Predict the structure of NAD-dependent epimerase/dehydratase domain-containing protein.
Amino acid sequence: MGEREGEVVCVTGGSGYIGSWLVQLLLHRGYTVNATLKNLNDEKETKHLQSLDGANQSNLRLFQMDLLNYDSIVAAVTGAAGVFHVASPCIVDQVQDPQLQLLDPAIKGTINVLTAAKEAGVRRVVVTSSISAIFPSPNWPADVVKDEDCWTDEEYCKQKGVWYPLSKTLAEKAAWKFAVEKGLDIVVVNPGTVMGPIIPPAINASMLMILRLLQGCTETYEDFFMGLVHVKDVALAHILVYENTLATGRHLCVEAISHYGDFAAKVAELYPEYKVPRLPKDTQPGLLRTKDGSKKLKELGLVFTPMEQIIKDSVESLRSKGYLS
Ligand SMILES: NC(=O)c1ccc[n+]([C@@H]2O[C@H](COP(=O)([O-])OP(=O)(O)OC[C@H]3O[C@@H](n4cnc5c(N)ncnc54)[C@H](OP(=O)(O)O)[C@@H]3O)[C@@H](O)[C@H]2O)c1
């Protein structure tokens, strides 16, 4: 058990890919976790959480929550010292109705969670944003490595119809505006493409990317990729910025800034038995690479898992869950 024994925190989207890793690590550290999910009667959302090592009825409480239903959020947040706002639709494929499927739950959902947290007297809220609120940003100076000062170009997203980055950008901007105007302590994590062991029974959008690549898909995610990060490191980053009161602002969370082509080449090298396509090296035109993108989190003590290990952990998990033979 950890030093935060019994402190109550709420994790929105606690049954999702990142959310369930975060719940697992918080329980290990001794926190009591209010985890929200969409349907309490669906075993596919509840069972993997209830089966987590060390979880019991007093340290893990499950709440049915809809991001657009304020009262359902209040119930989960009441009594919590901290909130991890992870829930948001994560869809990189084409959507029929961007407003309904992505923008409303991301933006209104964030405001609802922050309002409920403020009303409940929550000390700090960690907001899960994304590199999708940093990239695509075609007007950023071509000779400067992208960092936390860089924001996704909203007009570019609208013109190209890339709605997920727009949803994450507008949601993060709304969160910062709320924090300043209402005086709420928030801190933001901006993860890259998250991969590694899967806890829930369902597969999320980022693990689908590596699965599709191993099956021969030639998509290069031009407007969606800026680097890779291990799911455990993302969960740890959330806890680090929650516990360390010196942590402020945005936190880029990638093992390196890289292109999807770098990742695809490494997957091909490690797993020649699959049909991994040859992709161009520069799949994100103009994106400057660096090993040192996540300086802020490194300074807080995070040691990032390298790309090769992230890929190996992902493939092993996909195999053990039966997605790959
Ligand atoms: N995966 C990545 O590569 C990546 C990278 C950067 C940032 N992120 C961010 O990380 C967060 C979690 O993503 P993930 O990868 O863990 O995907 P995920 O497994 O799909 O998790 C998304 C979570 O949000 C919940 N959710 C979505 N819409 C909701 C609504 N209207 N009401 C209540 N809950 C709702 C989902 O609930 P159900 O499971 O019940 O549908 C799920 O728990 C998101 O904010 C995403 O934008 C992900």
Observations:
- The mean pLDDT is 97.
